[in-house]
Amino acid sequence: MDLDLGQVRAFVSVADQLHFSRAAGDLFLTQQALSKRIKRLEQTVGVSLFTRNVRSVQLTRAGDRFLPYARDLLATAEAAGRALRESLPAIRVDVWGQVHAPTHVLRAAGSDTTLSLSMRRSDAASTGALRRGELDLAFVGTLTAPLADLSYEEVYREPMAVLVHPDHPLGNLEVWTVDDLRHTGIWYPDLSAVPELQAFFHDYAKDNGIDFTVEGTNLGLRDGVALMRQDPARVTVLGAEWDIGDEKVLRRVPLTPTPAYSWSMAWRKNDRNPALAALVQRIRQVVRRKGWLDLADNPAFVDGPRRG
């Protein structure tokens, strides 16, 4: 019996979900395409694998008996693919910076192939390296002009929050609003070395009528936190998930509406590396499973200034 692994994978997904629409979403298929795969598999094996009505989907007795073997087939195929991918060169990925969302995305997605990571901290630098063939995948933020020879796919909307000293007059607020920031203003160190972040924060302040002050050299996030610890008058906005160490003084407080920095993965359209394709697919799956783009449905969550 010549079984199509795509059809077998469709069968296992429906068996796990007992719901055609959810299974189609997990496989990035339309429900019609998924139904066709199941029908062709049933034609190949010669029996019905599911009973379906308006309200429910259930495995038939034959489907229940076939399921463990179907899982074994997929596991064997994955093991074979992993063995091949492990023999390939490392995938070169630029994650932009150490404390930002791309490293979180990669950790959650995992990879069977060795990854070689870099941190160029600039969209222009990483896309240039992609085009020269020095990278296989890069994470980029605000896009002023997407390049025609690269594919882009949004993967994460990184929420922002307020960082404030408890001795500040508003330091005890549990949630900050834009009006609060209009009252206090925002302080930033010099962010010219990271132009995309600089544009994001400055545009957020300007678009919302918030005064901002740029003062001090940017020596890294921990240094900026230390400067704020010394001066309770300073208030800033930063990533709600950025690692600021074991901070025991400053408070990171939710901001509503919540601005978000949009991250996309980018790769060359003509890249046919199967290991890269597998990594991209894993990232897509974890993005969907974690709901990282669903925050847009929350009225308290809005996209921050984004170009392009």
Automatic annotation (TrEMBL):
Keyword annotations of the record: Activator, DNA-binding, Transcription, Transcription regulation
Domain of life, per lineage: Bacteria
PROSITE patterns: HTH_LYSR
Entry keyword Cytoplasm: no
Keyword DNA-binding attached: yes
Record-annotated HTH lysR-type domain positions: 1-60
One family name in Pfam for this protein: HTH_1
InterPro entries on file: LysR_HTH_N, LysR_subst-bd, WH-like_DNA-bd_sf, WH_DNA-bd_sf
Family stated for the protein in its record: Belongs to the LysR transcriptional regulatory family.
Protein name: LysR family transcriptional regulator
Taxonomic source organism: Fodinicola feengrottensis
Taxonomy of the source species: Bacteria, Bacillati, Actinomycetota, Actinomycetes, Mycobacteriales
